Amino acid sequence: MNITVIGCGNGGTAIAADLSLKGHTVKMLKTSDSYNPHYMYLKENKKITLVRNGEEQLADINEVTTDYAKVLTEDTELIIIFVQTNYHKNVIENICPYLHSNQIVLVEPGYFATEFFMPLIVEKNLTIVEAESSPIDCRISKPGRVEVLFENVRNPLGVYPKANKDYAEERLNELNYHFTYLDSVIEAALHNPNLIVHTVGSLMSTPRIEKTNGEYWMYKEVFTPSVWNIVESLDKEKNNVLIKLGLKEKSYVDACKYRNAEDLSLDSKQIFMNYALNYSPKGPFTSDSRFVIEDVPFGLVLLEELGQHLQVETKTCTTLVNLADLLLQKDFRKVGRKIDFDKLQLVLAD
């Protein structure tokens, strides 16, 4: 398959390398203006070293560029967006003039990015797919080299419009990521694990992050019984919103188990704790990491706005947004996710 990966960070680099090693033709597009050493290495060498279970594999990348027209061509079959959700609206607006009929766009993960494509979905028969999370948890260790930390056993996706679901499933299964399919892209957005653990974990870790000057491992330390009470309270609010939308509820830990465990009879919380202690990435290293500046305005503010619209109480969510505002002296609601509820209703009615 001809695939363009948008984003040259951790996730985009790992997916691009993995798909190339699986035999797909892969191009990469960098959307920001910052020319970091990793991007410059990729641009010059067009190769990525993927490290999995201690084994190194060298993947060839067909093209690495900042030129949209060069990698978003008519023969591009699949576009995978792997940029922070803060930039989704801008990136999607920039790529829309280069999209062609019958292409599939996979957003990893989404937070209801489908909304930004809606004027073109019918016109060009696009299929928009949103993922709960990335199939590969990874970190760039040096320019041109990415190390796999963990790989999901299953990867739930939402597809819009549903009329294209069979086509999307047939094509996406060629990637061999054990995709499963949800009822809606909105389910995928609200089951994004970062909405829960990144926000609660990083905000509750603020003193430790600042005290340790970057020598901190959130997943291994922060989820004590008291902090877990906050996780469960926020998770309950998320599920109440899903129920009011007529969608399927699922606890954070059950969703985690479904993605991470072969054996679904195992205890859900233990699956999460096993990941946290043995496979999670180190960090965050600053109190204003993407765990906050991305997942508060585009995760928590999204949930809060849905709750207000649906008249579902979200006290915990609101408290966390207020806390983030105080800690970082920002107004995350001002820069956060604003939903077009007419478009939301179109997706729900699909």
Give a quick summary of the entry.
With 350 residues, the chain is an alpha/beta fold.
Describe this structure in words.
It is a single chain. It is globular and about 50 Å long. The chain contains 18 helices and twelve strands. It has 350 residues and is α/β, with parallel strands linked by helices. β6 (78-81), α4 (88-95) and β7 form a beta-alpha-beta unit. It has two domains: 2-190, 3-Layer(aba) Sandwich (Rossmann fold); 193-338, N-(1-d-carboxylethyl)-l-norvaline Dehydrogenase, domain 2 (Orthogonal Bundle). The protein has an eight-stranded mixed β-sheet, sandwiched between helices. A four-stranded mixed β-sheet has the order 4-3-10-9.
Shape: globular
Instruction: Report the portion of residues in β strands.
Output: 15-25%
Query: How would you state the average pLDDT, rounded?
Result: 95
The helicity comes to 40-55%
Taking strands numbered 1, 2, ... along the chain, how are they ordered across the largest sheet?
5-2-1-6-7-8-11-12
- Overall number of structural domains: 2
**What's the total helix number?**
18
Q: Gap between N and C termini, in Å? A: 28 Å
List the secondary-structure elements in sequence, H or E: EHEHEEEHEHEHEEEEHEHHHHHHHHHHHH
Question: Which segments are poorly predicted (pLDDT under 50) over 5 or more consecutive residues?
Answer: none
Main beta sheet, described?
Answer: 8 strands, mixed
CATH topology of the largest domain: Rossmann fold
Report the CATH superfamily of the largest domain.
NAD(P)-binding Rossmann-like Domain
Rg on CA atoms, Å: 19 Å
In terms of structural class, how would the helical and strand content be classed? alpha/beta
Number of strands: 12
Which CATH C-level class of the largest domain is it? Alpha Beta
Which architecture of the largest domain would the CATH scheme give at its second level?
A: 3-Layer(aba) Sandwich
InterPro entries: 6-PGluconate_DH-like_C_sf (IPR008927), 6PGD_dom2 (IPR013328), KPR_N (IPR013332), NAD(P)-bd_dom_sf (IPR036291), Opine/Lysopine_DH (IPR051729), Opine_DH (IPR003421)
Protein name: NAD/NADP octopine/nopaline dehydrogenase, alpha-helical domain protein
Domain Ketopantoate reductase N-terminal: 3-106
Pfam families: ApbA, Octopine_DH
